[in-house]
Design brief:
Blueprint (H helix, E strand, L loop, with lengths): L4 E5 L6 H15 L6 E5 L2 H11 L5 E5 L16 H6 L4 E4 L2 H6 L4 H13 L3 E6 L3 H5 L3 H12 L5 H4 L3 E4 L13 H19 L7 E5 L7 H5 L6 E4 L6 H9 L5
Parallel strand pairs: 1-2, 1-8, 2-3, 3-4, 4-5, 5-6, 6-7, 7-8
The protein binds 2-phosphoglycolic acid.
The site of 2-phosphoglycolic acid (PGA) has 13 residues, from strand 8.
Length: 253
């Protein structure tokens, strides 16, 4: 059984003050929730405060939205995995489509980050997904395969057990346009097939999240698909009650 994992990607939103009031509100809604792994990835500036407030919580894990591929050095503006680990960050999102599209991240860069994240004890959430143009051209499976092979190059089956893959069709991110549960399931099944070629039987243990306009009203149907093991939630995670509702849709029945 793969435990479902629901992660909030706050992107470039939320000040420290907003984070404090969010958490208080959010906690009251998820108090009774069990059986789901919850992750919040705030902006870097809110990580220290959130870490202090969570105090090593087993219920809610801390995530980062990015990291650099070196441990330290002359890399102005970058954050290293050691800095994240010091603040008890457990997960790190790598290769989000916004980083790929707006900040030039390639599969090779994502792979370098992945290697260092794993060596540092961080659990990577590796994002893949096709653009609308690629889907319209019928190339989505090929694109996913290229991204997976490039981003996950050299990862052992053992390491892969700590990696989460997020399938996020670029055309569904922040657009209000969600992949249908059937479309998402088909893509997830394909991701798992590729993982099988890369890490064999371990593929059955890897959690694959769906991301792209996940909302309280579509979460249950997406999470009900056999290969959808969680969600990476952007916009809807900024609202504590709505995010809690998405999490509740993932509770094992
Ligand atoms: P969205 O973002 O939920 O706002 O579409 C998802 C993501 O980018 O991870």
């Amino acid at each position: 059984m793969r435990k479902k994992i629901i992660a909030a990607n706050w992107k470039m939103n939320m000040t420290v003050a907003e984070t404090v009031s969010y958490l208080e509100n959010f906690r009251s809604h998820v108090d009774e929730v069990n059986g789901v792994e919850i992750v919040i990835a705030p902006p870097f500036t809110a990580i220290a405060k959130l870490s202090e407030l969570l105090g090593g919580s087993q219920k809610i894990s801390l995530g980062a939205q990015n990291m650099h591929f070196e441990m330290s050095g002359a890399f102005t503006g970058e954050i290293s995995p050691a800095m994240l680990r010091e603040l008890f960050v457990r997960f790190v999102i790598l290769g989000h489509s916004e980083r790929r599209q707006l900040f030039g991240e390639t599969d090779a860069i994502v792979n370098k980050k992945l290697v260092l994240a794993l060596a540092s004890g961080l659990k990577p959430i590796v994002c893949v997904g096709e653009t609308l143009e690629e889907r319209d051209a019928g190339r989505e499976k090929e694109v996913l395969e290229t991204q997976l092979r490039g981003s996950l190059a050299g990862v052992t089956p053992e390491q892969m057990q700590t990696v989460v893959v997020a399938y996020e069709p670029v055309w569904a991110i922040g657009t209000g346009r969600t992949a249908s549960p059937e479309q998402a399931q088909e893509a997830h099944a394909h991701v798992r097939e590729v993982l099988k070629e890369l890490v064999g039987e371990t593929a059955a243990k890897v959690r694959i999240q769906y991301g792209g306009s996940v909302k309280p009203n579509n979460a249950a149907s997406l999470l009900g698909q056999p290969d959808i093991d969680g969600a990476l939630v952007g916009g809807a995670s900024l609202e504590p009650l709505g995010f809690a509702e998405i999490i509740k849709a993932a509770v094992p029945k």
